[in-house]
Design goal:
Layout lengths: L2 H38 L7 H15 L3 H8 L1 H17 L6 H28 L6 H13 L1 H12 L8 H23 L20 H12 L2 H30 L7 H25 L2 H7 L2 H21 L20 H29 L4 H22 L5 H38 L1
C-alpha cells in the first residue's frame, strides 16, 4: 500500500465533499427555491426539474468526448475545470434569469462529465485490485458527508419559513459558492498517483484521444457492459428521485405542517447519514464480504432497502406532491415526518450499496480502461437521471415509484449476472494457475 495514494484518495474525497456540499444542497432545494423566486420575480419562469434535466442531458452527451479530453489533459486538470463549472452554476442564482439558468446548466453538465470521469480515472490510478473496494468506500463516505453541512444550513435558515425570501436565498447561495471554491482549491492540490507495483501496468499507458473514443464505443458494446448499463440506469433514476423529487415532495406537502420547508434540508441530512453509513459498511468494512462472497450480496441488500423505502413513501406522501404545494394526503393521515426522514435514510443507504459496488466493479474488472468505463457509467446514469427529471414534470409520485421498483429489480439481476461471470472467469484463472 502506497501512503501517498492513500493521502491522494483522502484529498480527492474531501475536495468532492466540499464541491458537492454546494451542488447537492442546491439540487435538493432548487425547485423549492425557484418556486419562491417566481413569487418575488413574476417575470422569472425557470423550472428546477428542467434545469436538472438539462444538466444530466449535457452530462450524458459530454461523456463520449471526456475519455479523449482526459487522454490529452489528464484527470487532475479535468477535475479542476469541472469544479469551476459547479461554482459558476451556483453563482447564476444571484441573477435569476431563465436563459442564464439553462445556459449555466449546459455548462455544468459538460463540467460534470470532466470531474466525474476524471475522478474515476484518478481513483483507479491510486488503487489496485486489493485496494479498489477500500478506496471506493473511503471516497464515497467522504463524498456523502457533503449531504450534512449544506443541508443543516438549509434546515436552520429555512426554519419557520413557508416562503424563502431574497435575503435568506442570498445567505445560502453565498455560503455554498465559498464552499465550492474551497473544494476546487483542494482538487488543484492533488498530486500525481504514486507508482504501485501491484497496480495493472495498463494504467500507465498513454492513449491518444481518437483511440480513447473508439475504445469507449467498443467497451460499450460488450456483453458485461450492456448488462451493467441496466444497473447504471437504475442508479440514475434513484439519484434524480432522492436528490430532486423526494425533497421537493416533502416540502410541497402542506399537511406535514409549517415544518415542511424546513424538512427539505433535514431530508438531505438523513440521506447523507444513510450514504455515509452505507459507504462505510459496504465499502470499507464490506470489502471482506465482497472478497469472500462477491459484490452481488451488497447490491441485493441495497435493492431490498430501496423497496422498503418506496413502499413507505407510497403510503406517506400524496401522489401530486412533486408538482407543487398541495393539501392532499396519502394513506398515513397526516403525513408522518419521522417516516419521511426514515425513508430519506433508507434511500441514502441503498444508494451507497449500489454505487460502492459499481465503483468497485468498474475500477477492478475494467481497470485496463478506467476512463472509458467510468465515462459509460456516467453517460448511462446521466441519461436516466435526465429522463427522470423530464417525466417528473408529468408523472405523479406513484408512477415514479413503480418505475423505480421495476428498474431496480431488473438492474439488480443484471448486476448479479455480471458478477457471476466475473467469479467464473476468476475461478478459471485460478484453476489454470494450479495446473
Amino acid at each position: 500500500m502506497v501512503l501517498q495514494n492513500v493521502v491522494n484518495v483522502f484529498i480527492l474525497g474531501c475536495g468532492f465533499m466540499l464541491i458537492f456540499t454546494s451542488f447537492q444542497t442546491l439540487g435538493n432545494i432548487e425547485q423549492t427555491i425557484i418556486d419562491s423566486i417566481k413569487q418575488d420575480v413574476p417575470t422569472f419562469s425557470g423550472d428546477g426539474y428542467t434545469s436538472l434535466a438539462i444538466i444530466y442531458a449535457a452530462l450524458s452527451l459530454s461523456n463520449w468526448v471526456t475519455p479523449s479530453t482526459l487522454s490529452a489533459i489528464g484527470p487532475r486538470l479535468a477535475m479542476v475545470i469541472g469544479a469551476i463549472t459547479y461554482c459558476l452554476f451556483i453563482a447564476c442564482f444571484f441573477f435569476p434569469h431563465v436563459a442564464l439558468l439553462y445556459a449555466s446548466s449546459v455548462v455544468l453538465g459538460a463540467g460534470a462529465a470532466l470531474i466525474w470521469t476524471g475522478q474515476g480515472m484518478y481513483l483507479s490510478q491510486c488503487s489496485n485490485n486489493e485496494t479498489i473496494s477500500r478506496n471506493s468506500g473511503v471516497f464515497w463516505a467522504l463524498l456523502q458527508m457533503s449531504m450534512f453541512f449544506g443541508n443543516l444550513l438549509v434546515f436552520f435558515t429555512f426554519q419557520g419559513k413557508t416562503h424563502i425570501d431574497e435575503e435568506t436565498r442570498t445567505i445560502v447561495f453565498s455560503v455554498l459558492i465559498v464552499v465550492g471554491i474551497l473544494g476546487t482549491i483542494m482538487l488543484a492540490c492533488l498530486r500525481h498517483p504514486a507508482t504501485d507495483h501491484n497496480a495493472p501496468i495498463e494504467l500507465t499507458q498513454v492513449v491518444r484521444p481518437k483511440e480513447a473514443f473508439i475504445n469507449a464505443i467498443r467497451l460499450f458494446k460488450t456483453k458485461r457492459m450492456m448488462l451493467l448499463c441496466i444497473t447504471f440506469v437504475y442508479t440514475g433514476l434513484s439519484l434524480s428521485f432522492f436528490s430532486g423529487v423526494y425533497g421537493s415532495s416533502i416540502g410541497f406537502t402542506n399537511a406535514i405542517g409549517t415544518s415542511a420547508k424546513q424538512l427539505v434540508g433535514l431530508n438531505g441530512v438523513f440521506i447523507g447519514i444513510g450514504e455515509v453509513l452505507g459507504g462505510v459498511a459496504f465499502g470499507l468494512l464490506g470489502s471482506k464480504i465482497t472478497s469472500r462472497y462477491g459484490r452481488d450480496p451488497v447490491v441485493i441488500v441495497g435493492v431490498v432497502i430501496h423497496l422498503v423505502s418506496y413502499f413507505l413513501i407510497y403510503i406517506n406522501l400524496p401522489n401530486v406532491a412533486p408538482f407543487g404545494n398541495t393539501d392532499e394526503v396519502s394513506y398515513i393521515k397526516p403525513p408522518n415526518s419521522i417516516v419521511a426522514m426514515l425513508c430519506s435514510f433508507l434511500l441514502g443507504c441503498g444508494d451507497a450499496c449500489f454505487n460502492t459496488q459499481c465503483y468497485s466493479m468498474l475500477g477492478g474488472v475494467f481497470n485496463k480502461q478506467p476512463a472509458e468505463a467510468f465515462s459509460i457509467f456516467k453517460f448511462t446514469q446521466s441519461v436516466a437521471a435526465a429522463a427522470s427529471f423530464i417525466y417528473s414534470l408529468h408523472f405523479g409520485l406513484h408512477v415514479q415509484l413503480l418505475i423505480l421498483v421495476i428498474v431496480g429489480i431488473v438492474g439488480t439481476v443484471s448486476f448479479c449476472l455480471v458478477e457471476f461471470s466475473v467469479k467464473k472467469h476468476q475461478a478459471e484463472i485460478e484453476t489454470n494457475r494450479e495446473k
